[in-house]
Amino acid sequence: MKTPTEIKQDIETKFPGIQITLEGASLIVPKERWSEIAKFLKNASEYSFDFLSSVTGVDYKEYLEVVYHLYSMEKKEGPLTIKVRTDCEKSLVPSVTPIWRSAEFQEREAYDLVGIHFMGHPDLRRILMWEGFQHHPLRKDYVQDDQDRSVEQF
Amino acid sequence: MEYTLKETPALETQTLEVSLGPQHPSTHGVFRMDVVLDGETIVKLKPVMGYLHRNHEKLAENMTSYLASMPYTDRLDYICSMTNNFAYALAVEKLANLEVPERAQYIRIIMAELTRLVNHTLLIGFLLNDLGAFFTPILYAFREREKILDLFEDVAGSRMMCNYFRFGGLKVDVTSDFIPRVRQIINKYPKFLDEFEKLLSENEILMARCQNVGVLPKELAISAGVTGPMLRASGVPYDIRKVDGYSIYNRFKFRVPIGEKGDVYDRYYMRLLEMRESIKILDQAIREIPDGEYISKIGAAGARSPRTFKPPKGDAYGRIEAPKGELGFYLVSDGTTKPYRYHVRSSSFINLTILEDMCLGHKIADAIVILGSIDIVLGEVDR
Amino acid sequence: MFGWGVIKGMLVTLKNFILSYFTKERLTTVQYPEERLPVKERFRNFPFLIYDNKPEDLRCVSCDICAKECPPKCITIVRDSDEQGKPLKRPKVFDIDFSICMNCGICEEVCPFDAIFMDHEFELAKFGRFEDLNYRKEDLLKPAEHFAKIRPQDAARIEAKRRAKAQPATPETKTQ
């Protein structure tokens, strides 16, 4: 498999005008062009990343981030990590469910627990918490209603 | 007198919405399916989950150390606790760059393959229970499973919630009669599998109810992120033990069975074949196991005082071929003793994506059988 | 012939049924509570505190490490103090809540003074949920002979380690 640096250069030559940053071994992709890059990574014959293994929503306090791990079943190649950042109040990320079907339940979970909205998802509603629950539990500033013991006492 | 024959108007029918509710003897836990029926044929199906949500991911961010989440990973997929521990230990060792001694690697693989035997035996029993063979295959399966669970109790202290793996090795070395007992188990297991096959595989009722039911085509399986025996029954040769070669799996010779049609019968037969391959791996492992340490020095220090274990900043994704599919842990560390983000990629949750596609057009009794063949455990679906 | 598979399956069931009268391996039910299976040595259920000769000489020095490491936080420790208010190396209050404890065994692993171990008792059902299931210090104390009886190999190893630590480490007086 090509190294992340080579993949970054390939994408930048194919889609002029995109600025991708390399952090560790993962690529940070701007959220406006994420759908086109995803289609390219799936359909291009030298990559054929056809298996989306995991979608995770992370809450860093200034921004929210979605982390994707891609594998290629055809070529049996290793993970490619892609991160997409968005802001906390109006968090909109294009959904990849039309491209990879496995993102359907995982994006619903990221919406339910972290609060990231996905544009183009066929059925975006809560999956693990009950309907009518107001907050997003996995955010760092979430306080439970009946929380009377703090963890710092231990 | 005129007598006109009136034409009877066409019968008006309506669809019926049924909730196969959370309390049902066949839904493998608290799991609900909202089904829209036309007569007895399924028109729409939506799974509803979250009745067992215990917020495992946020608990791990507030525990005192990385090791304190290890007993909680036992309770994710509560039938196969050793492989859950294995996946978490692998993810943390990738994050912190820890090495594991040779003897510990061999013992880990022996425990993982014994867990695969335990899980597949139980699954065949419960699939037959869903079909209506009330409890006879389950009890035959449990009789064999007890020998392996007794072995786990001897070594780790508990039959199901083992809490045996540590970062960098194992909690304690195996007992002196461990290897002879494993050899005894793998000598008797093929005969039990032959008896099981004679009981079940050519049964006409089973074949009529399971063949051509719940067919999953290859492209849909890859796109929907299905992994494990379900993917291989649809014809895709992808096994994480061969692709990633994590731990020391590339030293063992074993084959990966592939199915043809991807229906319920193929998935049931796939698990029988995988059990025979697991016995081959166990045979090779107990012949080659060396003497030595069971935990590395850094790992032992970390297990004695867990609050001093601080992995460097960064993130890691570690995955294994659990008996049900791909189990992965995504960890983000910020240099302190607690993880910043801890995410579990569980196979039961993602394999449920195509439950609706597989069930459309079948009768409602088939929906139960298809759900049984996906092999879900609610502890993993809801975490 | 159609139906032969079903008949073959029924022959297997018949064989199991008849042989269960003759071989012990096929009849695996244990009639509890009249007969009980022996408990394995490493089985861990609920912790207990250990004392050497008299219940006042317990090994616990109330260092609070097990309470901090316990994942569900079921241990409560309050340190004892003498008349002037100076803290002593002894716990005044040592409570373990049985309805929270999940029998993971981490408290036994992290104790630096070998003072808390996992017991084998599992028939511990009670009627009251809050008052009866909260075990206080007096309920938890057990002698060292009890530990040697239920877990002989671990007890021998721990005794050898404590004897080696108690003697000064000179080459002539190396332990036996």
Care to describe what's here?
The complex is a heterotrimer of chains A (154), B (383) and C (176). By secondary structure, chain A is of the alpha/beta class. Chain A has helices spanning 4-14, 34-43, 103-113; strands at residues 21-23, 26-29, 51-59, 63-72, 77-87, 92-94, 117-119. Chain A contains three helices and seven strands. Chain A starts with a helix and ends in a 35-residue tail after the last strand. Chain B is built from 16 helices and eight strands. The model of chain B has no long low-confidence stretch (mean pLDDT 89). Chain C is of the alpha+beta class and 176 residues long. Chain C has a domain at 47-165: Alpha-Beta Plaits (2-Layer Sandwich), CATH 3.30.70. Chain C is 30% helix and 18% strand. In chain C, strand 2 (75-81) and strand 3 (87-97) form a beta hairpin. Chain C starts with a helix and ends in a 10-residue tail after the last helix. Chains in contact: A-B, B-C. The interface between A and B is medium-sized, with 34 and 36 residues.
| Averaged pLDDT of chain C | 85
Q: What is the oligomeric state here?
A: heterotrimer
Overall structural class of chain A, as computed from helix and strand content, comes to: alpha/beta
Quote the beta fraction of chain C. Answer: 15-25%
Indicate the radius of gyration of chain C in whole angstroms: 24 Å
Our measurement of the CA-to-CA distance between the termini of chain C, rounded to an integer number of angstroms, reads 75 Å
Number of strands of chain C: 6
Low-confidence stretches of chain A: none
Succession of helices and strands of chain A: HEEHEEEEHE
Strand arrangement, major sheet of chain A = 1-2-5-4-3
Strand arrangement within the widest β-sheet of chain C reads 4-1-6
The number of helical runs of chain A is: 3
Shape of chain A: globular
Detail the poorly predicted runs of chain C: none
Provide a quick synopsis of the model.
Chain A has 154 residues and is of the alpha/beta class. Chain A has three helices and seven strands; from the N terminus they run αββαββββαβ. Chain A is globular, with a radius of gyration of 17 Å.
